[in-house]
Design the sequence.
């Protein structure tokens, strides 16, 4: 990748793609792959999670994994633009819920620009980081690292976080190339000459370099960062589908290359820091189907104090209750969801339709008092509305 300086808002991690795909790969492929390629077990061990309470007893062992991306330029393969002194930030975060029966997996994207109240936490050196109100969500990672972010998410949501995974830029292109590219659908030509990113419209398979351009491009849609987040979700879904397909898993050299690239670029809490640990968990997910893997975004709106920032709406409370109770994703949060079973470029009512996360100020119709129960069915968006929302997010309807 040619060196070029990016504006601060253009420095985005590709963590969702790397982490969620690595996680789902481990969950779906079983012990055979993990043990057969044990020599690529190069996962970095991070600090333990400072839990402030016991895990709720709900009659099973549901799992909640917080995946974070660091845009640090330090380390081999991370110096994309010569800015090795910018520190680290988590520009994209996804909370992955895995049901106790291992039948469903859904990930909730948490926007970096949302304003939140960050509680006091402890950084990697053991120093206390004072609490701060009305700060950007990704501030916690900058000042205290992953464990500080985990503590904040637990405090804000009430959700017990079992594990965390941190990803940097390194290895992403190799992962995409290892599975022989990932298919996406682009509704209109993209010509971002300022950042050297161009795409032709249509369904196409992207190699590693093009994939990196695709997931970090933010100037091509009216929704900017939110549109990019939706495109990243679509990319993850497509990559997960490609990874678990026969075309990948039936080719040992391809699986090895993918695992080598993935494990070289992640850090986890000590309880999940090896392929063997992932493999022990993976055996439980042999019957999980692609249509059981869904990606959504926390309900958000424009921040009253700043039109360039977001806030979580009260409707998010029902989502946290559903996760804590280990319930399936409530129907009212499914508008605009993206499924790993969807093929890019094919019509789908759920691929990119209207959503609480489609744009600031747009929320779902559920009441905050509805809790974790599903709301009564309501009339869905028209085909025209679905196409318009998809276009705003840079997706095909």
Sequence:
């Amino acid at each position: 990748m040619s060196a070029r300086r990016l504006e601060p808002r253009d420095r985005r991690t590709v963590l969702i793609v790397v982490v969620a795909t690595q996680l789902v790969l481990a969950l779906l492929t079983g012990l055979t792959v993990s043990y057969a390629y044990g020599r690529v077990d190069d996962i970095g061990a991070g600090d333990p999670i400072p839990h402030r309470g016991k895990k709720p007893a709900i009659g099973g062992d549901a799992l909640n994994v917080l995946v974070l991306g660091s845009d640090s330029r330090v380390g081999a393969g991370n110096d994309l633009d010569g800015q090795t002194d910018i520190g680290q930030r988590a520009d994209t975060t996804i909370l992955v819920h895995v049901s106790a029966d291992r039948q469903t997996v859904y990930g909730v994207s948490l926007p970096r620009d949302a304003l939140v109240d960050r509680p006091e936490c402890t950084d990697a050196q053991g120093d206390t980081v004072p609490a701060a109100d009305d700060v950007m969500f990704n501030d916690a990672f900058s000042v205290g690292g992953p464990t500080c972010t985990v503590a904040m998410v637990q405090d804000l949501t009430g959700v017990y976080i079992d594990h965390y995974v941190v990803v940097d830029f390194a290895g992403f292109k190799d992962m995409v190339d290892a599975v022989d590219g990932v298919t996406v659908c682009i509704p209109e030509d993209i010509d971002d000459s300022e950042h050297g990113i161009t795409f032709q419209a249509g369904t196409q398979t992207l190699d590693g370099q093009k994939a990196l351009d695709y997931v970090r491009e933010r100037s091509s849609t009216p929704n900017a960062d939110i549109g990019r987040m939706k495109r990243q979700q679509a990319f993850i879904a497509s990559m997960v589908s490609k990874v678990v397909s026969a075309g990948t898993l039936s080719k040992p050299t391809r699986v090895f290359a993918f695992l080598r690239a993935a494990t070289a670029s992640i850090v986890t809490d000590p309880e999940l820091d090896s392929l063997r640990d992932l493999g022990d968990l993976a055996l439980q997910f042999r019957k999980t189907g692609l249509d059981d893997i869904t990606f959504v975004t926390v309900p958000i709106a424009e921040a009253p104090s700043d039109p360039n920032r977001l806030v979580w709406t009260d409707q998010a409370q029902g989502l946290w209750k559903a996760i804590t109770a280990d319930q399936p994703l409530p129907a009212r949060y499914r508008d605009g969801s993206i499924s790993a079973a969807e093929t890019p470029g094919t019509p789908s009512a759920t691929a990119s339709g209207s959503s609480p996360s489609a744009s600031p100020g747009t929320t779902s119709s559920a009441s905050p008092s509805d809790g974790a129960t599903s709301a009564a069915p309501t009339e869905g968006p028209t085909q025209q509305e679905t196409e318009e929302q998809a276009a705003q997010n840079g997706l095909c309807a």
Observations:
- The longest strand covers residues 90-98.
- Confidence is low (pLDDT under 50) at residues 1-18, 24-37, 72-87, 347-378.
